[in-house]
Amino acid sequence: MSTDSTSQFATPRIDGRALLGLYDPADTTDWGPIRAAQLHAGGQLALFLLGANVVGAALVTLILADIAPLWALASWATVVAAVSVAVTFRRLAARQRAGNAAGLRDVRDTVLEGIALAAVWSVPPLALGMRADAGTALGLWIVLSLLMTASATAMAALPLATLSFLGILGSAIAAMLFFVGGPLFAAAVLLFTALLMIGCFSRARALVLIRAGEISLAERDETVSLLLREAEDHGADWLWETDAGRRVVRASSRFAHSVGLDPVSINGKSLLQVLAGPTWEAGNFSAGLRQLSDNLKGREPFRGVLLPVLVGDTERWFEIAANPRHDERGAFIGFRGVGSDVTEQRASADKINRMARLDTLTGLPNRLLINEALVRAMADAEKWGSRCAFMMIDLDRFKAVNDTLGHPVGDRLLSRVSERLASLMSDNEIIGRLGGDEFAVVVRDASDTLRLERLAQMIVDTLSRPYEIDQHTLYTGASVGLATGPRDGRTAEMLIRSADLALYRSKDAGGGKFTSYEPQLHVAAEERRLLEQALRKALSNNELHLNYQPVVNSDTGLLTGFEALVRWTHPELGVISPAKFIPLAEDARLIAPIGEWVLRTACAEAAGWPGETRVAVNVSPEQLHNPGFVSIVASALANSGLPAHRLELEVTESVFMRDDTGAVKVLERILALGVRLSLDDFGTGYSSLGYLSRTRFSTIKIDRSFVIGAAKGVAEPIAIIRAVVVLAQSLGMTTTAEGVETADQHRMVQDLGCTKVQGYYFSRPLPVAEARALAHRDGHERAVA
């Protein structure tokens, strides 16, 4: 048996806490049987302990009869007997209950028995012994010392209880003798008590070590028997031996049977020839046989040599290990070793290896196998001076399928996608699934650029065709990122990174297309990374500030409020456009803290504006899908003192695209605070109007693209604005036209019935000081009027 296998049966190191029953060490030892052995040993002398207590109580009663009333001594003796009987029954019951295993608590609770016995036996020396004469005190000491010795013997297996008993009672006796005979006698008692406690602890340790050793030996014997039974039942292991010339000597029948030869005729043959079988004459040796030959030549111990062996018409796999043999003079005389038939194990390992490299849902190669294939393709491209390619494929709108129809439908869609992709592949390509809705293609020979691009476009076109699944017609497109090695990356990791950047560009452009990697993509990605790092520090570095764009009444031109717009000025990068950093904040999950800062800052500023001037704050879908956002709004209002009706939160239609009601519930709770809601960029995204009936919006904002189109006389934007105005009026909402930049546009949205307008025609977004001045000036004009 190996050192590793025997080490698990080693006797455990017993420290003091484990011995006392305070904890079980976190090693491989099973302490259940050891604790049971402690309880069994503690119960073996339980009756002896009972007798010692009864006899001791009688002797103490006789010794103290002259200095204490008989009824008091009788009462005390009765208590001693009762406690002793209770402890005895507890010991016997615990012994019966423990069986073959006991818990930590069973041993630890025995301390109560030791304390109870010590308490009743401490009464005579403390209550009566201190006023006794020297002879009486000496007699009491002798009886109690004998009792302590008997208890240390009877209860040694339970050291926590025994040490508690000895410590308490020994201290009581020492206190008695200190007053009766002086410090010398007290010191003697304490020394005697300490010796008893040390002896008790040592005996308990010996018992635990013996039991642990017995358990270890039993487990080892059981394991060896199991191994021997396995060897006999399966016949997989066999011994072999060679002489100095590598010829087989004393071949075992099992070895001969394994190689398909007669036990008599195999002796004297070359071991290599026996294992090579029919390939010996042809000289077509396996790598394993060559390794075995080298090991035999080296005359050093070896193990784990795997080689295929033909037994009849069947190929088997053997694992060989051996040690060299030497005579008394140290001369080499051959090898003695063991062999095993590991054919079944190897087949299982191969199956597991294949399964580890295949995607369980689609049956395609998984990320591991795709990476291995890409590494081989890049090595071949470098070797032959050619090119390989890597494509990353991401499904468009797949998340919407999962969210609306459930994961089972999504899984079936992925299976159909994998079938379509597999049908497009030739022997030159390997298609695999990386995980989720991401797939990848390794192109071994990518010398033909036009063919490579045609394949990428074919993937986009094929995956964009509709799917019929469970009576649902599903439309999902695909985006592809394409990178060619070694031009776009000299290692597999670099090429994957390049393809990922190209895929990101495809997704960013709206999906449904393929993009080939270009060096500027890496530059853009690095810029994005640096910008994200800077954005993470923008709040703490006070780099963000708010501008306020006025919103005015369409008919009167009077100020009704401001829209708070966040701006970022970096000390080195300068002013950074919101169109660049807002999407970055959303992708990097920074929009929530930034949005909270905007909300609190805007409320604090608006609280100082006069009259009913409102402030509008944009809220992202991520914020609204957080139930804690309601508390943030309430806190911002409370801390700033801004009345709730003067705060307007602007949300976009995209917040309703998730297949849940979480955002609607959050909006309902915000409305309950008295805050107004505005629907921003209406008509540019989500096509359903159902959410309008579920949420009480105060305002619908018409996107500037419709305003620009209507101003040019395009019929469709004009019709859309009219329809939105009529819809808003029927639902009791106001309308705000965004992006009004000219007088003509202003007159046009007035004629179409828009309630409020905002845009450069009235004012650009203003710094906080100018917005504050405008709010106060407008408030003064209203007061004068």
Describe the structure.
The protein is of the alpha/beta class and about 775 residues long. It is built from 32 helices and 20 strands. It has an 8-stranded mixed beta barrel, surrounded by 5 helices. It has a 5-stranded mixed beta sheet with strand order 6-7-5-10-11, sandwiched between helices. The chain has a 4-stranded antiparallel beta sheet with strand order 1-4-3-2, with helices on both faces. β6 and β7 (about 440-445) form a beta hairpin. α3 packs across α11 and α5 packs antiparallel against α7 (about 110-120). The longest helix has about 50 residues, at about 185-235. The chain starts with a helix and ends with a helix.
Shape by Cα distribution:
flat
Helix content: 55-70%
Mean pLDDT: 83
Distance between the termini: 103 Å
Largest sheet properties: 8 strands, mixed, barrel
Radius of gyration: 45 Å
Number of DSSP helical runs: 32
Note the topology.
Layout: H1 3-7, H2 16-20, H3 31-44, H4 46-63, H5 70-98, H6 104-108, H7 111-121, H8 123-128, H9 134-154, H10 159-180, H11 183-234, E1 237-241, H12 253-259, H13 271-276, H14 279-282, H15 287-298, E2 302-311, E3 314-326, E4 332-341, H16 343-355, H17 367-384, E5 388-395, H18 398-405, H19 407-424, E6 429-435, E7 438-443, H20 449-464, E8 467-469, E9 472-474, E10 478-485, H21 492-508, E11 514-516, H22 519-538, E12 544-553, E13 559-570, E14 574-576, H23 578-587, H24 591-606, E15 614-618, H25 621-624, H26 629-640, E16 647-652, H27 662-672, E17 676-682, H28 690-694, E18 699-702, H29 704-711, H30 715-730, E19 734-737, H31 743-751, E20 756-757, H32 768-784
Parallel strand pairs: 10-11, 13-15, 15-16, 16-17, 17-18, 18-19, 19-20
Antiparallel strand pairs: 1-4, 2-3, 3-4, 5-7, 5-10, 6-7, 8-9, 12-13, 12-20, 13-14
Helix pairs in contact: 3-5, 3-11, 4-5, 4-9, 5-7, 7-10, 9-10, 9-11, 10-11, 18-19, 19-20, 24-26, 26-27, 29-30, 29-31
